[in-house]
Design a protein that fits this description.
Elements (H helix, E strand, L loop, with lengths): L9 H4 L1 H13 L9 H12 L4 E2 L2 E2 L6 H6 L11
Antiparallel strand pairs: 1-2
Length: 81
């Protein structure tokens, strides 16, 4: 297992886990619930700069940031986006 990366998203940390949790999780959601890719990318950029990010998980709320950021209704628990 790679050394933990506190500022990495799950896709950068473990492709296997990313595919199983994030990719499959997003596929299970209705397409109309998914935010535009530009919006998602902007949100993830904010998450990567946040001190609460740890291996793709938000330490403030426990979510996988890649799922929360991809949801149209997703919101940062600190109102950063």
């Amino acid at each position: 297992m790679p050394k933990p990366c506190t500022r990495c998203l799950l896709k950068d940390y473990s492709k296997e886990v990313y595919d199983r949790l994030i990719v499959e999780g997003l596929k299970a959601l209705p397409a109309e619930d998914i935010a535009d890719s530009d919006v998602t990318a902007l949100r993830l950029g904010v998450c990567q700069a946040c001190e609460k990010l740890n291996q793709g998980t938000c330490l403030a709320c426990g979510c996988y940031v890649e799922i929360r950021a991809a949801l149209k209704t997703g919101k940062c628990p600190y109102s950063k986006w």
